[in-house]
Amino acid sequence: MEIRVLGAHNSESDTARLTSLLIDGTLAVDAGGLTSSLSFSEQAKVNSIILTHCHYDHIRDVAAMALNISYFQKTVCVYSQASTLDEISRHVLNGVIYPKFNEIKTPDNPPIEFRPLEPYKVEDIGGYKVLAVPVNHAVPTVGYQVSSGEGKSFFFSGDTGPGLSACWEHISPQLLIIDVTLPNQHEKHAIPAGHLTPRLLGQELAEFKKARGYLPPVVLIHLSPLFEDDIREEATKVAGELGADIALAYEGMRLNL
After folding, report:
1. CA atoms in the 13 A half-sphere facing the CB of 199
2. Structural domain that includes position 94
3. pTM greater than the 0.85 cutoff
4. Which of 70, 100, 153, 176 is most buried per CB count within 10 Å?
5. What is the CATH classification number for the domain harbouring 98?
């Protein structure tokens, strides 16, 4: 299983893209930097998109992807909690901001099809076993454990704040991809917004190790570009304290399981 980081950040510039992952070229996880990172031929290979929550930096390219898919004459299934899909329908693909691509038939089927997911229920999506697990954020959000047919798996937290012990009970991945948005000095802003800092990450990883008996490699994502150097320095300290393998995600990063 190859995990390609399309977007590793929470804001965008000429060197940073919004959060999105691509699994084996066919399954997208969040859509912040989806179309902006892929050629048209690469987009045509995407069959499924799973979304963690409705915030703009995670759903932005659903609209652009829907338009492009209409030219490919295929249907891409978009999975998330019903509340997330409803927000996209009401505020983005609503016939005003952008066409209702989940209803338009071009020519036979709509370019995208919304499929609601239930937390804690394993779904077969594009040949992967996908488990949605609620996490702590400002709006209803789930992280995803994605498992391949060969038994390889990773967990992507989406946006999350502290208090993941209940989440850890349901997963056993070989890789953690976790939100660390801000450095420690901005913890007072991170917590109410539902994000982690390196210090808070260390606490959550200690809980994971206690609950699961091991600690897999960790990749940090949803980074604030202006604070990335501070996050890297503080995460390196956490890695030393826990004996953990912690790396920062970057655009174009490829992880193989």
Report:
1. 10
2. 2-256
3. yes
4. 176
5. 3.60.15.10
